[in-house]
Amino acid sequence: MEMRPRSPLFMVIVSGAFVVAALYVIYRLVDPLPPRHLTIAAGIAGSGYDNIAKQYARILARYGVALEIRNSAGAVEDLALLRDPGSGVQAALTTFGVTLPEDANTLYSLGGIFNAAIHFLQKSGAYSGFRTIPRQTPFHRNARDRPAVAHF
Question: What number is the average pLDDT over the span 17-44?
Answer without folding.
Answer: 87
